[in-house]
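hi! just following up on the protien thing from before. the input was this:
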Amino acid sequence: MEKSLFAKYIAYLKGFVGTITKKVNDSTSEATYSFKDGLTKKLSADGNWSSLNFDGTRVTADVVSLDSPLPLKRRDKITSASGEIPKVGMKMALNEKTMREIDNLVSRGTADAEIAFLVYDDATRCLTGIYEEIEAQYLQALSTGQILVDDTTNVGTGIRVDFGYLPGNSFGVTAPWSDPTTSKPLDDISTVLTAASLAGNPITLLKMDPVTFNQFAASTQVKEKYAFTVGFSGSNVQSPNLAQVNVMLLAEYRLQIKLVDRVVKNERDGVRTNQRPWATNKVIFLAAEKVGKLVYSTLAEATRQNKAVTYVFTDDYIMLKTWHSPEPFAEWTSSQALVIPVIENTGGIYSLNTEEANTSTQTEGDAVFNYKGAAYTKASAIAGLNAANPQNTLTVSSTDANINKAVNKLNDEQEALFVAALVVAP
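and the predicted 3d structure came back as:
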């Protein structure tokens, strides 16, 4: 490593970095990253991190190799296990062609500020690259309870993190939201809100992507509810928009919907691909916008700096550096950070899979109950409902439709008990 060829412009670099960081942290800016609203920064002195769940037990969200199983931890006692914060980074090179362009600008007397803008465009991309990766991890973590960085889009180490979303807080629906006629989005939301209320977890915010919201708004149930709310009595009811839906939901349920519409670009081997980190068909129920910590630590190089390298530190956890190499002849810029978004209080977070429902066709009057394409005895279906819900009042004389409705209201934990009791029909 050798000293940067553009050291005279270093003051501009610091200014650019400061401006970008300020814009990212400005909640009124169009460039706002949602992880800035959902996470609070927290320094980890030892480079480890853990997640605090609903009952006060500290449970590590482990970073392990992709092929390894995640360690199973009990939720009813304290554990001192911890995970290591992974490093995020990228590097870019200013090649000879661009340097010749810069030389031409200098010879024509171009202002230093304009030249510096071209020189440090790589620094801007390296800085925002860190923010983009954190945003992708955060949205994936919030919508699924996990972070998966695999080797198909990431150059380097793949990581897998599980924050332990509770199966008892994960629900399916009465009918897929993609079917506007049969779906019952408001009933599905009420099921989750009831479960959250019984557990003492208030819900004020729903997050979903635009596709899911459009399915919600297009459902007959939602359109009829909106028409009733505004006093419309005609037959041609239009789908309400987000603002109209939120007025209705605030009055009915004291909650609001916030859309997540985000694309990030990944690059591997020179090929760029678009990724939507928010999971499809997922609605996440939250008590508030804040859901965890952005845990960061100090890079080893930050305290062992190379005198030939120009360093700029920003936002507490990002290190930018520039340097020159004679072979290959290039001006290098890189960004690095030890940082990870950590979702906490997972016991207060609920999820709804808007396409998860038993849609198998039933034949009323027989002794069979069809579940996800297979036939089981009706008696075992009732036994499964009794195991999943001790308050179940349905019997073998109940209609298949009512049994199916009860099955589709089960959370993932209850559904596992239901499935375990099923007996294949002869």
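The chain has twelve helices and 21 strands.
The first strand starts at residue 39 and ends at 43.
cheers
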